[in-house]
Sequence to fold (513 residues):
Amino acid sequence: MLKGRAKGHGTRTATTTNDTSLEDPSNMKEIKNFINGEYVTNASGKTYENRNPVDNALIGMVYEAGKPEVDAAVAAAKAALKGPWGKLSVVERCNLLDEVVNEINRRFDDFLQAEIADTGKPAHLASHIDIPRGAANFKIFTDTIKNVSTESFEMRTPDGKTARSYGVRTPRGVIAIICPWNLPLLLMTWKAGPALACGNTVVVKPSEDTPRTAALLGEVMNKVGIPKGVYNVVNGFGANSAGAFLTAHPDVDALTFTGETRTGEVIMKAAANGSRPVSLEMGGKNAAIVFADCDFDKAIEGTLRSVFLNCGQVCLGTERVYVERPIFDKFVAALKAGAEGMKIGVPDDPAANFGPLVSKKHQEKVLSYYKVAVEEGATVITGGGVPDMPGELAEGCWVQPTIWTGLPETARVIKEEIFGPCCHIAPFDAEDEVLEKANDNKYGLACAIWTQDVSRAHRVAQKMEVGISWVNSWFLRDLRTPFGGSKQSGIGREGGVHSLEFYTDLKNVCIKL
Ligand code: NAD
Fold:
């Protein structure tokens, strides 16, 4: 039974609606695909459930895009490249996208409610991170594409004259964007923002768990006058569903993905057909390194954030903490006190800073690691289970903030990404020793280093085999900087001018003068 104002589901023929209004976005009962500027169902009649992680209530049905809908979305995106979109100047295009930012901000609360309905995260968190960054991701790239020039060189030719070469950036074409569920709007616009600013058209495949904000953005695109077919959304799963149909589609010119490493590998194989460029932002098993000379309170505050923010569902989050032995016991005690002081609660509880995991499936995965940790011999410092929640909330996807100590470096919970609110804390005695341990992992996304010794900060940061090293901070993002993972955490860098490398084709024009 759908919670709230259910409208039923299960349409057997593809339908299109010209009325693109989506009713109350947090209360959307039918989540459709957005193709060529219109909300459409599907030919198969297949729908799947959309549940609220707070109490696992059924809150909507999503129309799964099959091959016909993916084909239609890609065809619309391809056609739009040659339509009015392709004829706009860079400044005209960017002005339109800046209106997208204004409209997201005007409908801030709708986006907030939609994101909360899908993820259950605290409202103040989504209103400080997810939605503002979701909008800012357009503005940073409209500014970048307008202001970054290409190179130009003059050379002497054998006949004593000259030739001038200059670079020209053109859109790549149709970009497929495959998204995860942890920061749905933020991570989708992190790709759609630069892709559109560079003049491409996009087909977005949101996570099956979090379809709402991508759907809602379709309304915004129509409202501000983004031409039909420029922004499309197809809902569904990976294999044998919208994800696989989209990545295999020969008219998709480039693929950009955020999600698990093993999914990224599948997508990379799909991209090989047709030799298409791919940008992969994948898993992590990030370390925090806490030296005895750190500002202790700041290190605790920062580590509490890096381990527990968004219920541990941040790709950059810390799951391994290494603490220099003289402050180890004090650090473990303070982190335990901080974890036990977290306020678990529903999104609109202003005091809550800890929400549920995204789904029952993910709750099962995280709890299976909680079990593995104990089987491997961990000392459970705090947590390790499911919190007592009242009434209907007991059905939700809650887990306790959890800290372990005492495991060898070979333990599965130290090696494998859990993507939950948990960490293992281990002592260390020397800089070389901790560098070796921190780098001994197949992932290489991010790290946080806590020290007041400036030389050591630079030394350790540069030796970490990761895409981003934070010193005395965590999750501080200047969107002009390169973002991406080393080792099995990613391929390619996005952010600022680095995104232009992926979302444009850089051509050279050489003129004999
Ligand atoms: P996931 O890999 O399970 O799914 C991501 C997306 O890929 C979903 O939309 C899914 O439907 C789609 N997909 C799955 N199989 C597919 C296939 N065969 N073909 C095409 N598409 C397919 O990841 P998730 O569980 O949604 O997200 C969590 C993961 O994302 C974690 O590993 C986390 O570290 C990672 N992540 C990385 C970053 C980063 O910037 N590096 C950011 C956020 C999340």
